[in-house]
Design a protein that fits this description.
By secondary structure, this protein is mainly α. The protein has a domain of 104 residues. The protein contains six helices and no strands. α1 packs antiparallel against α2, α2 runs parallel beside α4 and α3 runs antiparallel to α4.
């Protein structure tokens, strides 16, 4: 079907089909950040762990939806890593590169508004703003009260 201005007014895509890829993207991004944090908190900071952290940092940077921010962060990371490469002590150099990766992921966390804007809110059922619904009126004619915090069994403040 086409509308007055020639645009299609009918879509075979359900809201869930539209939302699913966005949720998968968000899950991928958040799982990568979680794994990054898990590796950073490891009891040992081995060369293997640092290689994984470096790889995860690159992946997380490339997940950023804004190409300008992605390019800026890649350039910033490369610049700082080339400065760190000048350090003669290998342990200090590895520690500095680790700090750089943590700083970059921290910078990405400040950009989460861009990431979260990709995942739109989905309205399943619109809510009424005036009075109870027909079902509420039928089953709760006098309304219903939410229990106070002290009235809930087992909940102590």
């Amino acid at each position: 079907m086409t509308g007055e201005n020639g645009n299609s007014t009918f879509s075979m895509q359900t809201p869930a089909a539209i939302l699913a890829p966005k949720q998968q993207y968000l899950n991928l991004m958040m799982n990568s950040i979680y794994k990054f944090g898990e590796l950073c908190a490891a009891s040992e900071n081995t060369k293997d762990i640092q290689a994984k952290i470096s790889l995860l940092t690159s992946m997380i940077i490339n997940y950023i939806p804004n190409p300008k921010e992605r390019k800026r962060l890649i350039e910033l990371r490369n610049q700082k890593r080339s400065e760190a490469a000048k350090i003669k002590d290998i342990d200090l150099q590895r520690e500095k590169k680790f700090d750089i990766d943590c700083e970059i992921v921290g910078e990405i966390m400040t950009l989460m508004d861009d990431v979260l804007s990709i995942v739109e809110r989905q309205t399943v059922i619109s809510t009424t703003t005036s009075g109870p619904s027909a079902l509420e009126a039928e089953y709760y004619p006098n309304g219903y009260q939410l229990p106070e915090e002290g009235e809930i069994d087992g909940l102590e403040s």
